[in-house]
Amino acid sequence: MTSPAGMPPEKTPRLSIIFPAYNEEHRIGPTLREYAAHFREAAYGPFELVVVLNGCRDDTHGVVMRVMAEAPEVRMLEFARPLGKGGAIWEGFAAARGELLVFADADNMVRAPETERLVRALADHDIAIADRFGGVSEGGNQPLLRWLISALSRLWVRRFLGLPYRDTQCGAKAFRGGTWRTIAPRIWERGWAFDLDVLAHALATGVSVAEVPVRWRHVAEDSKVRAWIDVPKTLFATFGIRRRARRA
Predict the structure, then answer these.
(1) Rounded to whole angstroms, how far apart are CA atoms 236 and 19?
(2) Is pTM beyond 0.70 here?
């Protein structure tokens, strides 16, 4: 891993937003600029945007460096080998300096104003998760086959893990720092099943979770999800998640 890059803000940030990035040269720039502009106007004080380069082989590094030149709130962590989505979030949270921790996808599917709603929900809850199904879609619909796979996966998760949440996999979630530090030692998954691991242990330990309906847009271009590979892996991981959550 390279050292965190970026000019540190003058004050310790209260809010840290983590962006896991794997070959995101076409999407990460606009996302960072929107988030930086929005949260400068929000009433949360100093904040930081931490991009975790997750084994990138394209010019994501160069794009982030150019944004850092204009946005001192942006920092970068770089790992030579892919860590998985969950692994990148884990490393970002470990390096974060804020007491409020958020992760959001680099594709900006959940935009900055909607992510701010998650942060506001932390006033009354330990974790806040974005809910696409209770919100409004601003883009095109998912292809039918992908929608069907998603629906069946959600049914399995609800029945097998007993998770009552409508949307476990949306790539935007917020945590109180103390809550994350409490459950983090229990979280083993570093891939796409990371969210399920977090929510299963949150439920098992009595952590309060707010479901926040959000406006979102489906972004198919450059998607990193390989449905026929990643979905079976994620569902297989639920067996270990359930076993460990029951021990919590």
Answers:
(1) 26
(2) yes
